[in-house]
Amino acid sequence: MVRLATVRTTFHARVIAARLGAEGIVTDLRGNVDGIYPMGDVHVFVSEEDLPEAQELLLADEVESAFDEDDDHHVDTRTPPELWIVLATILVIAAVLFARSI
Q1: What confidence tens digit (pLDDT) does each residue in 58-90 have?
Q2: Residue 32 DSSP class
Q3: How many CB atoms lie within 10 A of CB 60?
């Protein structure tokens, strides 16, 4: 077995293992796989003969994900800076009007 990748989380390692397993490539996860603390790198190993195919699959997945159009499904919930300026202006005017009425 040779190391294919090192990732930061068990979840990411299991996603890689599932992706390669779907193509018939057997993987072995080493490192902090089932530790009590979810910290530490996880290494994904494959057989030496499967290494080129596994590298190609992961590279192809990475290239395809670069072209994903996540912007269509992403909703920006942040308030635009212009709205904050308008709100601050309204508050200042309201404070001035309130101060004059006292």
Answers
A1: 988 888 877 766 555 555 566 667 777 888 888
A2: S
A3: 10
